[in-house]
Amino acid sequence: FGTAMIPNKSVQIEVATAKGNEKIFSCQALFSNGGDLRFFDKSVQFIYNSGTSLYYDPVLFEPLSGFLAYYANLILAGEIDTYEFNGGNYSYEMARDIALRGSASVYKKGWSTRINLVDDLNRNIGLRKSRLAWYFAMDLFKDGDIEGTLKEINTMLDGIEQSFRDLGRDNHTQFFLKAHSGRIAKMLSMLGRKELLKDMKELDPDRRDLYQDALDSISK
User: Fold this and answer.
1) What is the spatial distance between Cα 59 and Cα 54, in angstroms, rounded to a whole number?
2) Sheet with 8-19, edge to edge strand ranges
3) Nearest partner of 140 among 75, 193, 132, judged by Cα
4) Which of 12, 67, 91, 141 places its Cα 20 to 30 Å from the Cα of 43?
């Protein structure tokens, strides 16, 4: 897997069946970076024999290592996107290539869904723009650059609007808002930006009360 790491992962084995001398496992898995990236996979099948080495081969598809490498690339793509606009493109391409090989393999279950997932993430330019802007905003805020912070926050809001306009209320965009809503509200409250908090109430209605509390704290 190179240097790619998946900080948080949970795998639940559901059933194991025998096929000749091989055991076929079915499981559910949750992958996360511990922050605003989270992927739940409902069903994956793979073979594994005790004592067998597990490594990823970019040429010869193997279901378990391919599955792990796929999600490692999704997490890596999301992380790189927070440093450079569309910086995760290569990792998304790697994940898609794995999914295509998986869909053409004997153990194809779930791989068509994974092709759709990586395509959805890759084309959600609004969310990718928002994530980059928000991480920049946090760094600028720590450095005391208020003007730069506000510029990035406005870019973040534009990206969220673009995501919803292009893809509807996308689950990944909504999870980004859920993961960062508390810090966004606190930052805007500290900056006294009522108009931006009102914008957040409209963009993130599930947490309207949170932004209203931040608005009320400015008025006091």
Assistant:
1) 15
2) 8-19, 22-32, 38-47
3) 132
4) 91
The packing angle between helices 125-142 and 146-167, to 10°, is 160
Q: What is the dihedral of CA 12, 93, 80, 1, to 10 degrees?
A: 50
Q: How far apart are CA 8 and CA 220, in angstroms?
A: 40
Q: Which of 102, 103, 97 is nearest to 119 (CA)?
A: 97
User: 159: closest CA among 176, 143, 140, 183?
Assistant: 176
Q: Tens of pLDDT along 6-19?
A: 455 555 545 455 55
**So where are the chain's domains?**
8-123, 125-219
In tens, the pLDDT along 93-118 reads 999 999 999 999 988 889 999 999 99
CB atoms within 10 A of CB 183: 13
